[in-house]
TrEMBL record:
Its cofactor is [2Fe-2S] cluster. Keywords: 2Fe-2S, Electron transport, Iron, Iron-sulfur, Metal-binding, Transport. Pfam families: Fer2 (PF00111). The keyword Metal-binding applies. Gene3D superfamilies: 3.10.20.30. Belongs to the 2Fe2S plant-type ferredoxin family. It comes from the Bacteria. This is 2Fe-2S iron-sulfur cluster binding domain-containing protein. Residues 1-90 form the 2Fe-2S ferredoxin-type domain.
Length: 90
């Protein structure tokens, strides 16, 4: 997995959320609810595909189609390149 904007790479297991893998690797993605509803963690995929641990994460159909994901409930289905994300300042 790669965060293009910050030139950061790390591994994410198929059964691990993108948020969990990022935090485990020291990448502090801004997050709040961690259940796919608040949208705080929303970021954009440049390439790759994800699966969701919840039926319908807090994204509109158009946002999903445009490549936006919620890392707190997304697990990788392929290599991911994320080009827009917000890192926590804490
Ligand atoms: S932290 Fe709330 S949707 Fe991801």
């Amino acid at each position: 997995m790669r965060f293009e904007q910050h030139d950061i790479e790390f591994q994410c297991a198929a059964n691990e959320t993108v948020l969990h893998a990022a935090l485990r690797s020291g990448v502090a993605i801004t997050a709040s609810c961690r259940n796919g509803t608040c949208r705080t963690c929303m970021c954009h995929l440049q390439s790759g595909q994800v699966n969701y641990q919840v039926e319908w994460p807090g994204l509109s159909f158009d946002e999903k189609a445009d490549g936006y994901i919620l890392p707190c409930v997304a697990t990788p289905l392929s290599e991911l390149i994320i080009d827009k994300l917000v890192l926590s300042s804490a």
